[in-house]
Amino acid sequence: MALRDQQGPFFGEYGGRFMPESLIAAIDELTAAYEWAKTDPGFKAELAELHRTYTGRPSIITEVPRFAEHAGGARIILKREDLNHTGSHKINNVLGQALLTRKIGKKRVIAETGAGQHGVATATAAALFGLECTIFMGEVDTQRQALNVARMRLLGAEVVSVTTGSRTLKDAINEAYREWVTSVQTTNYVFGTAAGPHPFPAMVRDFQKIIGEEARQQVLDLTGRLPDAVAACVGGGSNAIGIFHAFLDDPEVKLYGFEAAGDGVDTDRHAASIERGRPGILHGARSYLLQDEDGQTIESHSISAGLDYPGVGPEHAWLSDIGRAEYLPATDTEAMDALRLLSRTEGIIPAIESAHALAGALKLGREMGPDSIILVNLSGRGDKDVATAGTWFDLFDEGAQQA
Amino acid sequence: MTVTSASSVAHTISARRHAGSGALIGYLPVGFPDLATSIDAAVALVENGVDILELGLPYSDPVMDGLVIQEATQVALAAGFRVRDVFTAVEAIRSRVNAPVLVMTYWNPVLQYGLDRFAGSLRDAGGAGLITPDITPDSAAEWIDTSDSFGLDRVFLAAPSSTEERLAGVVEASRGFVYAVSTMGITGARQDVDAAARSLVSRLRDAGAENACVGIGISTGDQVREVLAYADGAIVGSALVRSLAEGGVAGVARTASSLAAGCTLS
Asked: If interface means Cβ-Cβ distance under 8 Å, which residues of chain B face chain A?
């Protein structure tokens, strides 16, 4: 079976559907709607039309030679998901799930969000489709991504600040599950990443795989060949699986996922689930997980709210185990340096999440040399991160001036 | 299905039913506010009319629990709760009172401890089995095998939203009793126990359930009486946890006693 043909619920030994019985009926209903959507030409046509006239697809690719000078001279090509409406790849998935919500006949959607990109995308789709919308966001994240909180409220969504546990993405998902159990008859859960119980990992991937399908052809058109490597950041892993998927059965194309290493994978402040975790069950699926000896989830840390998650999607766990994709760490500092470098050399301010992939591409380029072509998924734009970057670099520049 | 020992839980429920009433099942988390007090509190429940104990295993991501239980289990975790403490608690409680003890646990801590090792430790400590809120029989093949080998009860949940086919699967897979979720929601006291509970218990009986116990939202003796009019057991959690938090062992003993008043024939 081709690697592209994996449909879940299991990817090797990962995935599954470990969920409370109270939610099974809703998940079954969503699964049925998704199976219908996979083969319904009307659904596909409507989603494609939305992407053409609303999302702004296809997104372009941009070659970045001035940035690439710092990457051993390798050719670096960015897939510009940052140019999508709402500023990230999240809209690809949300429009698909909003159409499914309408098919099921529910009038309200809920979602979790970390950086706020998925929350903004969901609030946007809810406005477009006339759905009620509640977004769950950890209190730590509502503070560091305040701009996105305001955006969601402007779009008419209710934003619930979650104050339990680590107060980040993991706890936002817990709270969204609790709300879903309570309101499941009227409410659909628009899950943001390619993790969670079946059908979410396969379904979110299928809504995101358009990234790689477009980019594969665009790189062929531009360079006459496939890239040597594809790089993407990995939190839950939806943008990464989205760009990887079209290349899974091209063995000459190496796939690299960059996990948030925070202060470093050898410290206790990182979010490198594959690099430093071990298999366990969280949020309905078996996958790599940051956990202690007892199976208690360990709180992750990253400057990037969107990567600050102790788990990872099951298809990535499987791709790592079979050696098809390699998962490497990028620290806060490496990501922020890459963010500034792309801003100054190319006039593109990336999201801090995406900057982890850029940091990885800089290293890959130096290893692979000037004849190589590296495709990087620029999954989001950095407008939301200007406050974080400002704080980070004020400190950095002050130190530099004193030196 | 290989049953290697008679279920003490089922036996207790059956005895209460033949006495014309039903079982009162009380939940408390291990390690809240500390291990010794949680053991004393569980003993006090039995001494004040609770028939079956449900000991919660504190977990970092309890998606089926409301704030009262979340806060208590976070206290236990912050105070250094370890999974092995559950076996210490079960053994200590069983040495002091004669009531079956089930452990309520999310699944990952069991997996990480090792399924066979967990089952063996629980059996050796005198535990009766597990209540597993975040897995369903279709995702629990290994647990079904292991619980058969070790002679442990396995209590799966049934929800008002479950289809007839799924209810049949839950009844088939469960041993001890079936946990009927009274309402679509998470744990926590409610003013009215949902009418959905009565309907669910009736559907479970049609699916062949011998013992159906209702949980979520029950917090008073009157609600216990109301539930026992149609179900085999009433499960109380948050109300007990709150009493323990606010009034210590004496407080939770008083609450247990008032809940147990709902088990007497009126």
From this structure: 59-64, 66-67, 70, 74, 77, 82-83, 107-113, 133-136, 138-139, 156-159, 161-163, 166, 170, 181, 184-186
CB contact under 8 A, A296 and B109: yes
Contact pairs from chain A to chain B, CB under 8 Å: 108
Indicate whether B137 belongs to any domain: yes
Burial A24-43 (b: 16+ CB within 10 A, else e): bbbbebbbebbeebeeeeeb
Partners of B83 on chain A (C-beta within 8 Å) are 294-295
Q: Which residues pair with A121 in a beta bridge?
A: none
- The tokens for A339 are 């963010």
Nearest CA in chain A to B137: A21
Contact A16 B107 (CB under 8 A): no
Query: B20 to chain A nearest CA, in Å?
Result: 31
Per-residue confidence at B266, pLDDT binned at 50, 70, 90? low
Q: Which domain holds residue B122?
A: 8-260
- Residue A81 confidence (pLDDT): 98
Q: Which CATH number does the domain housing residue B36 bear?
A: 3.20.20.70
Nearest to A273 by CA among A228, A329, A209: A329
Strand A75-80 versus strand A10-11 pairing type: unpaired
DSSP B158: E
CA trace torsion B66, B70, B73, B77 (10° rounding): 160
Residue B266: inside a domain, yes or no?
no
C-alpha dihedral sign at B245, B248, B254, B259: positive
What does the mean pLDDT of chain B come to?
94
Q: How many Cβ atoms from other residues are within 10 Å of residue B105's Cβ?
A: 26
Look at residue B1 and tell me if it is in a domain.
no
**pLDDT at residue B215 tops 90:** yes
CA–CA separation, A259 and A253 (whole Å):
19
Indicate the residue of A178, A185, A294 with minimum beta-carbon distance to B109: A294
Q: For the range A33-40, what are the long-range contacts, defined as Cβ-Cβ under 8 Å and sequence gap of 24 or more?
A: A33/A100, A33/A103, A33/A104, A34/A100, A34/A199, A34/A203, A36/A103, A37/A96, A37/A99, A37/A100, A37/A103, A38/A206
Nearest by CB to A25, from B67, B83, B163: name it.
B163
Judge whether B39 and B248 are in contact, CB under 8 Å.
no
What the block records as the tokens of B175 is: 């041993």
Number of domains in chain B: 1
Phi, psi dihedrals of residue A301, rounded to the nearest 5°: -140, 130
A163-201 per-position pLDDT tens digit: 988 898 999 999 999 999 999 999 999 999 999 999 999
pLDDT tens, position by position, B124-159: 999 999 999 999 999 999 999 999 999 999 999 999
A281 contacts chain B (CB < 8 A): yes
Nearest Cα neighbor of B259 from B89, B17, B45, B60 is B45
Best CA proximity match to A303, nearest among A387, A360, A243:
A387
Does some domain include residue B3? no
Q: How many CA atoms lie within 13 A of A268 on its CB side?
A: 5
Length of chain A: 403
CA angle B94, B178, B122 (to 5 degrees): 30
A183 CB neighbours in chain B (<8 A) are: 184
Report pLDDT for B186: 83
Looking at A15-24, A336-345, B5-14, B120-129, which range is the least confident one?
A: B5-14
Residue A260 φ/ψ region, left for φ over 0, alpha for ψ in the -120 to 50 degree band, beta for the rest: beta
In whole angstroms, what separates CA A184 from the centre of its chain? 25
